[in-house]
Design goal:
The protein is 35% helix and 22% strand. It contains 18 helices and 23 strands. The strands form 5 sheets. The chain has a 9-stranded mixed beta sheet with strand order 13-12-14-15-23-22-21-18-19, sandwiched between helices. Strands 5-2-6-1-7-10-11 form a 7-stranded parallel beta sheet, with helices on both faces. The radius of gyration is 25 Å and the shape is globular. It binds glutamine.
Length: 536
């Protein structure tokens, strides 16, 4: 069994500096040097998981294969490292407290007063080291959500301070990510916020080993020296993270800055001279020098915040690079789609993707967008609620059931073409109770999906309560919309297609959770290809 080493990534000055991308980039580099790596995220909010959060709060809810509803950073980890994460890779304050309180109720604390230190911090430490117990990983990177100095983050920082002693200083490294702002008026980069942020860490008993400085302008050697001097680190440990046009360049920049070697030295680990980054480099090259271009409309209702559709947007980037095509995505607000203006609004797109979602708001616009794509033979991709909208549209406008709907939106419809799943009928609690995670799906031979996946059995991730109502399947199939994928155990319809349309596929699952840089998802690749054909 290998002795697992731990890297912690904290953030200072402001949120949204990209700790997730830095963690994922470091993970990628360490992997490229031959180490087995995973990444976990600790989130300081009190929700047990982000499944109950509106996408406007923290962006998309990412779903792991084992059915955890997690922070979107886990999506970055999987996309960068081409690994699968799990329930254990995302821990929230809510979950920590839930475990401690459950233990208290069972009497496990034997009459003691239950306190933040040691009981909450012990539970945090237990969770942090859980993945290491498998012996599968050489290095585990732990990203600590929030910003140092926040009240919410304090127990996590304290747990990391203690863990340094428990695990030994040579087995842990702490990376602190901060911002070096540029003051336009004086034309200067400022290090003071970084100095203060490191002071806050020091007050909490933690000396960071490496500082990663987010900046809009190149950092001079003098500025780096100053940071090193004030923050007790050596010059090589002051790393620049300059703004770039794509997040996929960050691993390459971090390598130029020797982030991987610096961390490995801190961990007393031998850095192999050879680094295997050729496939990654070639991906970035293709991404930045694409020969073709397509325009895709992403129709959804959380469009004000692009993070709401993070995995879909990234899957389109992966698929674009593979097709030598720049994919321009415009998020179109479904509430703005109305019959009077739809033609003008959608005619400029080579493909239409209707996004997942919940509830009634914006549903009419989504159904109109499907109708437009179907009638005008524009490549159409419907994901989860997007598939459900396609089913409703077909029932209303082709089968002639004017009141067809999903029972999520209408209880009185006589044509419930989308209906609550049997296993959902008794469910009253909201958290973690949907059909979640990976399920098998058998593809119908000679369907478009079968030709795209090039195999019969696939496994994809789900997050929904409603499903296609089988009572209507024969009717649909007779009129040109067919089931192309079925769950072999439950018989649930997972994919619907229109074979007479150039490219019309709706999936009840979320293929976007399975696309990585090195393995772009076949459905997205094929959809972008179809959009390209349409553009030509
Ligand atoms: N609201 C729909 C359901 O629960 C679709 C969910 C989704 O798009 N993720 O079935």
């Amino acid at each position: 069994m290998t002795k697992t080493k731990y890297v912690f990534v904290t953030g200072g000055v402001t949120s949204s500096l990209g700790k997730g991308i830095i963690s994922a980039s470091l993970g990628r580099l360490l992997q490229a040097r031959g180490f087995s790596v995973t990444i976990q995220k600790l989130d300081p909010y009190i929700n047990v998981d982000p499944g109950t959060l509106n996408p406007y709060e923290h962006g998309e809810c990412y779903v792991t294969d084992d059915g955890a509803e997690t922070d979107l950073d886990l999506g970055h980890y999987e996309r960068f490292l081409d690994i699968q994460t799990s329930q254990a890779n995302n821990v929230t304050t809510g979950r920590i407290y839930q475990s401690v309180i459950n233990k208290e109720r069972k009497g496990d604390y034997l009459g003691k007063t239950v306190q933040v230190i040691p009981h909450i911090t012990d539970e945090i430490k237990r969770r942090i080291t859980l993945l290491g117990k498998s012996g599968k990983y050489d290095i585990i990177i732990t990203e600590i959500g929030g910003t140092v100095g926040d009240i919410e983050s304090l127990p996590y920082i304290e747990a990391v301070r203690q863990l340094r002693w428990d695990l030994g200083h040579n087995n842990t490294a702490i990376i602190h990510l901060t911002l070096v702002p540029y003051l336009n008026a004086s034309g200067e980069l400022k290090t003071k916020p970084t100095q203060h942020s490191v002071k806050v860490l020091l007050e909490n008993g933690i000396q960071p080993d490496v500082l990663v400085l987010r900046t809009e302008h190149e950092l001079t050697r003098d500025l780096r020296k100053k940071v090193a001097l004030f923050c007790n680190v050596n010059l090589e440990s002051v790393i620049q993270s300059i703004d770039v046009s794509t997040i996929y360049e960050v691993p390459l920049l971090m390598q130029e800055e020797n982030l991987d070697k610096t961390v490995l030295a801190r961990l007393n680990m031998e850095a192999k001279e050879k680094i295997h980054l050729a496939p990654w480099r070639s991906f970035v090259k293709k991404l930045k020098n694409a020969s073709w271009e397509v325009h895709i409309a992403l129709v959804g209702k959380y469009v004000e915040l692009h993070d709401s559709y993070k995995s879909i947007l990234e899957s389109l980037v992966h698929a674009g690079a593979l097709n030598d095509t720049k994919v321009n995505v415009t998020c179109v607000h479904s509430e703005m789609i109305i019959p009077e203006t739809i033609a003008g609004d959608l005619e400029k797109y080579d493909g239409i993707l209707v996004a997942p979602g919940f509830g009634d708001r914006g549903i009419d616009g989504k159904i109109l967008a499907v109708k437009y794509a179907r009638e005008n033979r524009v490549p159409f991709f419907g994901i989860c609620l997007g598939l459900q909208c396609a089913v409703i549209e077909f029932a209303r406008n082709v089968l002639g059931y004017a009141d067809a709907h999903s029972t999520e939106m209408s209880h009185i419809t006589k044509h419930p073409v989308i209906d609550l799943m049997e296993e959902q009928k008794g469910v009253t609690e909201k958290g973690g109770t949907m059909r979640l995670g990976g399920y098998a799906c058998e593809l119908v031979e000679n369907s478009r999906s079968y030709k795209i996946y090039k195999k019969k059995m696939i496994r994809e991730r789900h997050r929904h309560r409603y499903e296609f109502n089988d009572d209507f399947l024969a009717d649909f199939e007779q009129h040109g919309m067919v089931a192309a994928g079925i769950n072999p155990e439950s018989n649930l319809v997972e994919i619907m297609e229109q074979p007479d349309h150039p490219w019309f596929v709706g999936t009840q699952f979320h293929p976007e959770y399975n696309s990585t840089v090195l393995n772009p998802h076949p459905l997205f690749v094929s959809f972008v290809k179809a959009a390209l054909d349409h553009a030509e």
